[in-house]
Specification:
It is elongated, with a radius of gyration of 34 Å. The strands form 3 sheets. Strands 6, 7, 8, 9 and 10 form a 5-stranded antiparallel sheet that branches. A 4-stranded antiparallel sheet has the order 1-2-4-3, with helices on both faces. It starts with a strand and ends with a helix. Helix 8 crosses helix 10, helix 9 crosses helix 10 and helix 11 packs across helix 13. Helices cover 51% and strands 18% of the residues. With 442 residues, it is α+β, with helices and mostly antiparallel strands.
Length: 442
């Protein structure tokens, strides 16, 4: 068997595989011989069917199958031995008048070659690494929410200041019909809150969506509409009151502190705020890290320039799935997946340049830590190492779980690398400012 490669350009090549009779004939003869031993054809005893009849009935199908096996096996070996990095899979070049009656065959395969990728993590950029703080306004609001949550709840018929009001927002034209509970403090205009005072269960209030809240994301939640639909929304909606709830705030005393965090953990309002701040900022840090990871990834995709064998990939996409696609469908799929492919190549280069690898012990330790955190959520605060390792062993036996966990570990490694090497501007913001930055509003 002879295999040669012709590089058409830096991203495309054609591999020619020449298969001679000696490469496949012994395998074909063995398969046909086995067929002959077991063939049940009327007029012949088992094992006595003439080989010519077996050849006539099964010969072509066996030939095609065995040639294909030899072809794929040797092509894959060639790609591995030559260390040829390809995108997708080799595409056979279709020959309309291919002669299967010949003894020797020649097959051509198109290859889409992986481009050379150079990544500069220290490149100039306008990226921001956010540090999100829980400011005094947020802490006071959270304390007030705790007092309200643990206070005495009383249903009433008439809305008074400080009440929560439940009801249904509706607008037939926009298909809005959503039940929600409103805190009067959320309204941007105090006049809106005052419009509710004195209203009763069953009353209908007309409201304008524009400027209803100081944050459009609150409007998105109460109307149950999408992020793209809420911006600039200026319509009239009705709110039908179906429940009014009055709350007597809980006292900020030791009984409440113990109920929230356990006996003696928190002993003052100052300690309560400090705990809220610690927990909130830990969550904010995770969100800020995820945004930074996303922002850096998008920056690298936009600024790391390299070509792809696009024409080849579109042809491959046409035939790669269970059902073939049209050229137009393949174009659309390529457009959807191109950035993902580009980031895979960028990420692969970053991992190679910085020798980022995951050891089995790292994966086990990460999994064990994750399991302990999950068990703690269900009240198992001090599981034994034996119990944890038993669960780890079961998880590590699932290939899909191992893949998912490996991606999480590598994502953490990439994040730490970006924090170290990407020259981003640090910025301290409160949570409201961070949310606006998340949605590109800063």
């Amino acid at each position: 068997m002879n295999i040669t490669r012709n590089n058409l350009d830096a991203l495309n090549a054609v591999v020619t595989v020449e298969v001679s009779k000696s490469d496949y004939a012994p395998k074909v003869e063995k398969v046909l011989s086995d067929y002959r031993k077991n063939a049940a054809i009327p007029g012949f005893r088992k094992g006595t069917v003439p080989m010519s009849l077996i050849q006539k009935q099964y010969g072509r199908a066996v030939l095609l199958e065995e040639v294909n096996k030899v072809l794929q096996e040797n092509l894959n070996r060639y790609l591995q031995e030559e260390k040829i990095d390809i995108l997708g899979n080799p595409l056979p070049v279709v020959t309309e008048d291919f002669n299967w009656d010949a003894e020797d065959f020649k097959f051509d395969f198109e290859l889409g070659l992986t481009p050379e990728v150079t990544v500069d993590l220290s490149a100039k950029n306008s990226l921001v690494q956010y540090k999100v703080i829980a400011d005094e306004t947020m802490l006071n609001a959270q304390v007030a929410r705790i007092q309200k949550q643990y206070g005495k709840i009383v249903s009433t018929d008439v809305v008074a200041e400080g009440n929560d009001v439940s009801g249904i927002f509706a607008n037939e034209e926009k298909g809005i019909n959503n039940r929600t509970t409103l805190d009067m403090e959320f309204f941007a205009d105090k006049k809106t809150a005052k419009a509710f005072i004195g209203k009763k269960v069953g009353d209908v209030i007309k409201l304008k969506t524009k400027g209803l809240f100081d944050d459009d994301h609150k409007l998105m939640d109460v109307l149950a509409i999408g992020h793209d639909d809420v911006h600039g929304l200026d319509i009239e909606v009705t709110f039908t009151i179906d429940e009014v709830v009055a709350s007597e705030p809980a006292e900020l005393n030791q009984e409440l502190f113990d109920k929230l965090f356990g006996p003696g953990v928190i002993n003052s309002v100052e300690e309560l705020k400090a705990k809220i701040k610690e927990d909130a900022e830990a969550q904010f840090a995770q969100q800020a890290d995820q945004k930074f990871l996303t922002d850096v990834s998008e920056f690298l995709i936009a600024n790391t320039k390299f070509d792809l064998p696009a024409a080849f990939l579109k042809r491959w996409i046409q035939v790669a799935g269970e059902a073939p696609l049209t050229e137009e469908q393949a174009e659309e799929e390529y457009a959807r997946s191109e950035n993902g492919l580009r980031y895979q190549l960028i990420e692969g280069r970053i991992m190679a340049d910085n020798k980022l690898q995951i050891t089995f012990e790292e994966l086990k330790d990460f999994t064990a830590d994750l399991i302990r955190k999950q068990m703690a959520q269900f009240g198992q605060m001090n599981p034994s190492d034996e119990d944890v390792q038993g669960i780890v062993a079961r998880v590590m036996g699932n290939q899909e779980e191992v893949k998912r966990l490996s991606e999480q570990v590598m994502s953490t490694k990439m994040l730490n690398l970006f924090k170290d090497k990407v020259k981003a501007k640090s910025k301290e913001v409160n949570y409201d400012e961070f949310i606006k930055a998340m949605y590109g509003e800063m």
